[in-house]
Amino acid sequence: MTAVTEKYPGWADENRSHWVMIPSIIFTVVCPLLFGLRLWARKTTTGIDMGDWIGVAALVFALITNFLFFGMVRHGFGKHFDAIPYEDSKPALFLWWFGQATYKVSLHLTKVSLLLLYMRIFSHVVWFRRSAVALIVFLVAYMIASSIAGLAQCTPVQLSWDKKVTGKCVDLYVLFNCNGIVSMVTDVIVLVLPFPLIYGLNLPRAQKFALVPVFGLGTIIVVASTLRVYSLITGTTRDSDRTYDILGTLWTIIEYNLALICASLPSVRVLLVKALPKYFRSSAARSEGKSGRSGASHVRTWPSKVAMSGDGWSRVGNDGVHMSNLRKGRKGETDSQEVILEQVKVVKQPDRSDEEEDLDIEMGGIKKTIRYDVEFESIRKSHG
């Protein structure tokens, strides 16, 4: 073991490993829990699809990256590089080198999973679907290219973790900053892409507030990505201590783990509604019911008289709606319902009267409904 010469008293004992350990431990517990709830909610409602399985892959790579950080700290990551013995610096830098690829895979797969969620919700909007597909293609291509570039940063490759090997590396300062800027820009695009559709919906304010937790957290991810780029540009140089100047690493951990949490929130709410209906009852749905009774423009009502005969229901009067039309909207129709951020299931609360009935939204989304006021009378056949 090589003796360490201190540059000033206490220099060799300086350690920032807690910047890595604390968030990694927290997210290693929280992310699998929330994502497991997401899968459970999806399985019991709309079913698990490709976006969920891609999210599972993103979670696996996120956990791998978190455990790589645990191993790095064990070998001195967080201390000054010159204060770490050579026997520890090699495995620490090897794990750091490999983690660059697993981090990129996790982050980009999470974005793809979120875009697939958006595509399922707004599948009827052609420009949105095409934009999302184009962005997914770019994200996958960039994920592969940047991962290969990160792993092949040095020639020979061993130079990435063994500083006694002779060779040449690319400019890591430029490489990391470029990756950070691209990640930040794609974060912003994924965040704002559905905004025009949501802003254009004719919904009560309370319903739009239901989107705040999801998109608010997305804003935090953008902030984390921006701070990561800022810390890389202003807080590091080509001569920076890569095992001690780790503020950018802290924001990296926050970014890819928070992205997973953001992708899980829309589906998790359904379980909270089922478990604690009194506390998580949708204020948006109640607002919709109240505003519908007051004649708000987003709820349409068609009073109608209908008659019941042996052949079923039929309409009486000129201003009604035939009962055969009271079924699930056909493909392409948006007047009957509009679902945001997840498919929803509407349930009637058994303890409410018919006049005061409100609809609860179970799936963490927003649903625009049409209420029909129906009067009916029995048709009696006359006997001659």
TrEMBL record:
Gene Ontology terms: cellular component: membrane
Keyword Transmembrane helix in record: yes
Main location, first listed in the record: membrane
Transmembrane segments: 20-41, 53-73, 93-119, 131-152, 172-197, 209-230, 250-272
Keywords of this entry: Membrane, Transmembrane, Transmembrane helix
Compartments (UniProt record): Membrane
Record domain Rhodopsin: where: 37-273
InterPro entries given in the database record: Rhodopsin_dom_fungi (IPR049326), SAT4-like (IPR052337)
Topology in membrane: Multi-pass membrane protein
Family per record: Belongs to the SAT4 family.
Descriptive protein name: Rhodopsin domain-containing protein
